[in-house]
Design brief:
The C terminus is likely disordered. The chain folds into 2 domains: 138 residues, Chondroitinase Ac, Chain A, domain 3, CATH 2.60.220; 252 residues, Rhodopsin 7-helix transmembrane proteins (Rhopdopsin 7-helix transmembrane proteins). A hairpin with a 7-residue loop joins strand 15 and strand 16. It starts with a helix and ends with a helix. 52% of the residues lie in helices and 20% in strands. The chain is α+β, with helices and mostly antiparallel strands. The protein is elongated, with a radius of gyration of 33 Å.
């Protein structure tokens, strides 16, 4: 249904078709400004608009019609490149979510009102955090009676904490198109807090067990792969432990207090988070070197260099942040159903620091995105090269190094590669889901559950490595026994 043309044809007919909506008919004096409040919007129509709407009639009063329609009556279509209508192009075309699903209709007199020197003012009230709000009106495409698009032409937007003020130079069907910011509601906060604390406590326990297992494996048979796992597990232990301490210590402090312990815990949390991401990247890099290692390429002081990067860079960054007094008490706003906000605090990047959001986004969004992307590229590169080299080996290529590889070496290489690939997926996927936290509450729950249980995932991988080590040991013993039997049989 095209409500714009419906109004132009006969307003009484439209009232019958839209009988569920409350139309406000006002006889207003053209020499005075008219004001009317409907739903969550206050409409102010200047006298110049009322005078223009009466056309050639010299009446002192005109009929002003104001109502609120549901946005479902409006079917957006792509903005036309030309043709009729106020807009001849796409520059004013705007898409998004209509605030409150409400479209405010403001019509007066019998003549179209446009190009006003004193604009019509509409004040929309809102109770949610909003970004990129835009005042729009409904522009028909004139292709049929059902389609149109939202246009910002002739409208100016002013956003405040509780209101959005629209000033437009014409009368039309008005709305506010927004991109709402997803925030955690007060009712969901206790459940998310319980999941985070419980999962982190379990992760601390299981990462300690994983460290013991990795240390024993490394003690029995030193291996760089196990050593990388050992460092990553240590970083995760520091991360979950510092999170629990930061969350608990802030409960001891008063609301306005910030002490050096809270700042230190914020530094430890920030440093361990960055170290975890970098050791994830090291896992991907080491996965690539598993392929290169068959050529006996030796890197001097390999683990020392990796440690300098994965532990040194976070430490250096944290020290620089300390010099700018970045760390302290971080406040998270929670939205309540009664429009009364509450807060949750954490020892992290101080909310008083001017660039706290920038640092938080770099640490919790940009860095994990780059790490996940890097690991994905490393995995793709390894798979591509291994498949290509395997084909050349089967085809009788000239690479003598690859000809020497027997089935046991290939099996070992694929087991090591699959182990690191699985570990990379386990650690990279939860942080890859961080983008869902900006989309839905379900994404927040999924992200919280998976990341709080990372310590358990690490423990499961340590058990897998233990089982693989025992299987290889048993296989070696069987081979040794077989060789002894063959020797005895030949002597006999």
């Amino acid at each position: 249904m095209c409500v714009d043309r419906c109004y132009e044809r006969e307003i009484t007919t439209c009232r019958q078709r839209l009988r569920n909506f409350n139309f406000h008919h006002l006889r207003v004096n053209v020499s005075q400004e008219a004001e009317k409040s409907v739903s969550n919007c206050r409409v102010n129509v200047p006298s110049s608009a009322l005078q223009m709407s009466r056309g050639n009639v010299n009446d002192d009063e005109v009929l002003l019609v104001v109502t609120v329609l549901n946005s479902n009556f409006f079917q957006p279509a792509p903005a036309p490149g030309g043709g009729k209508g106020r807009s001849a192009g796409r520059s004013h075309h705007r898409s998004g979510t209509v605030l409150g699903d409400s479209v405010v209709v403001v019509k007066a007199g019998s003549r179209r009102v446009r190009d006003l020197s004193h604009p019509v003012r509409l004040t929309f009230r809102h109770d949610k955090e909003i970004e990129e709000a835009a005042c729009v009106f409904w522009q028909e495409t004139y292709l049929d009676d059902r389609t149109g698009y939202w246009s910002t032409e002739g409208c100016h937007t002013n956003v405040t904490q509780a209101e959005i003020v629209c000033c437009c130079d014409h009368l039309s069907f008005f709305a506010v198109v927004v991109n709402p910011v997803l925030s955690v509601e007060k009712a969901s906060a206790p459940a998310l807090r319980y999941i985070s604390f419980t999962g982190s406590a379990l992760s601390v326990l299981f990462t300690i067990l994983a460290l013991i297992i990795y240390a024993r494996i490394q003690q029995r048979r030193p291996d760089k792969t196990v050593c990388v796992h050992l460092h990553l597990t240590g970083a995760l232990l520091c991360l979950h432990l510092s999170f629990l301490l930061s969350s608990c210590w802030v409960l001891v402090l008063d609301v306005a207090d910030e002490d050096w312990i809270c700042k230190g815990l914020g530094l430890l949390l920030h440093c361990s988070l960055m170290a975890t991401f970098l050791w994830m990247a090291v896992e991907g890099f080491h996965l690539y070197l598993l392929l290169v290692r068959v050529f006996n390429i030796y890197i001097k002081r390999y683990m020392l260099k990796l440690s300098l990067v994965a532990w040194g860079l976070p430490t250096l960054t944290a020290v620089l942040c300390v010099s700018f007094n970045v760390y302290g008490k971080h406040t998270i706003q929670l939205k309540g159903d009664d429009n009364h906000n509450s807060t949750v605090q954490l020892c992290w990047i101080s909310s008083q620091f001017p660039q706290d959001l920038l640092i938080s986004y770099i640490t919790t969004a940009a860095l994990p995105f780059l790490v996940v992307l890097f690991n994905f590229c490393m995995v793709c590169l390894v798979v591509f090269k291994m498949c290509g080299l395997r084909k050349r080996t089967r085809g009788g290529g000239s690479s003598s190094g690859w000809k020497k590889m027997n089935d046991d070496n290939w099996a070992r290489l694929w087991r090591d590669g699959s182990t690191l690939l699985g570990l990379s997926c386990v650690l990279g996927l939860p942080w890859g889901l961080s983008g869902l936290t900006y989309v839905s509450l379900l994404g927040i729950y999924l992200f919280t559950v998976l990341n709080s249980l990372q310590g358990i995932f690490i423990f499961l991988w340590s058990l897998a490595l233990t089982c693989k080590s025992r299987a290889e040991k048993n296989s070696s013993l069987r081979n040794t026994s077989s060789q002894k039997l063959m020797t005895i049989s030949s002597n006999n």
